[in-house]
Every structure is written in structure tokens, then in C-alpha cells.
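Ticket #4471: structure output looks truncated?

Reporter: J.K.
Steps to reproduce: submitted the chain below (242 residues) through the standard prediction queue, then opened the result file.
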Amino acid sequence: MKEIIAMHGWAGDSNQWSNWEKIFKCFEWEWQTSERGYKGINPHTPKWIHNSNQVKPKRVAICHSLGSHLIDKQVLHSATHVILINSFSRFIPSGKENRPVQMALNKMMNAINTPSEASMLRKFHTKAYKPNYIDAESIESNLINISDLGRVRLKNDLIRLINSNSLPIGLNTHSNVLIVNSEEDYILANQTKATLAEDLRNHLEFRPKIINLQDEGHSITKIENIKKIKHWLEFDHAKNMV
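Returned output as attached by the reporter:
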């Protein structure tokens, strides 16, 4: 059996996986999405469908950005494969890139639940999709329907991002891991990407595979890149088991 649980990142929602879901379902994958519930979608924490005691399923956790730290820890621990898309262990780098990143995050934190909130989120989503185009309607859809409780989650999760300093809790040492880095990611610092790779090499039994995507930003939009990730999952992951 083949199943996937996908977790979006900070300020996102489960709708971002619509193209992914269509592609994987065409190849008989069972797909579920986790949802934090920042906006007008109820929070949802799915569990694996198939009992591992009865069958030998391929369980895949796909996490975007902060999603690796937001996904249910038991789900992550029991995943046979983990795909980390522009993710991190420690978000704030410790080198020369530290100060501007810290200042930007503090500014974002101070904007939540103020008149500057919409402008801050608009800039964040535009930067996350850069260099690719995102239409104004899609950006605005990320600014509406933020509930009071969703705003609390938004702020608490940003605190979690700021304080991140290690691999996600629950990551199994036996998991097969794919790191997906976008070469034109305007959200993650280069040192942040390098730190994740090093932390994973020290943690995992099998060396993680890294895919670098050209002409792609923090948010993956191109169908051909989704298919590249699916290809690794179905054909290439065994090469890591050395």
C-alpha cells in the first residue's frame, strides 16, 4: 500500500497541495493533508490508514518548510519515507546571515494582530513564490478569514520557527529522506540548508538524497518538479540505502 500525509508550512494551508494530490492519485497513491487551521479551514491531523502489522505499506510524510516541525510526531516517526521541501532543522543561521534574518522575523512577529498584518503576509507570500508568478487573487486569499484562534496559531508557530534548533521531533533514524532545495529560495539562508543536510547525515542510518531545483522558489509550483519528486519516491530511493 502507498500512502502520503502532507503538511504545509507557516501561514499556508492544505490547498497548496492540490496539484500534488492530483498527480499522486493518478498513480494510485492514497493522499491526506494535515491542516493547521490559520484561515477558514478546520484544523485536521490525519493518521496512517493502513496497519503496519497487517501489510508493509510505503508511508510518506511530505513536509514543506516549517511543516516538518508541525506534522504529528507519531506520523513522522512511523513514516518509511520523508520528503523535506525547503525545510530546516534550525531556521536562523548562526553565521553572518543571522542578524538580518532575526530582524526580519521580529518585524513579522510584531505585525501579527496589528494593521500591518495583511501587508506583512502579502510580502511573505510574494517572497515565498518568487521568482515564480503568483496572481493577486491567490495572495489575497491568504490574507482573509484568519480567525482569532488561527491568529494565535500563526503567532505560536512563528515562535516555534524562531526557536527551532534541531531536527523535527519524531524523525525516525531508519527513514529514507529526500531533501528538496530550491536554488532561488528567498526564504531560507544557504547556511540553513547546509545545517539541515549535516544534521540529517548525523542522525539517519541511510544517507539523505538531495535534489536541487532550478527556477523554483520557496513554494514549489512547477508540475515537472512535483513529478521529479514522485520519481525519486517510486524509483530512486533505494540508491540511498548504502
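Triage note (M.O.): checked the attachment and the full C-alpha cell line is present. The chain has a mean pLDDT of 92.
Status: closed, working as intended.
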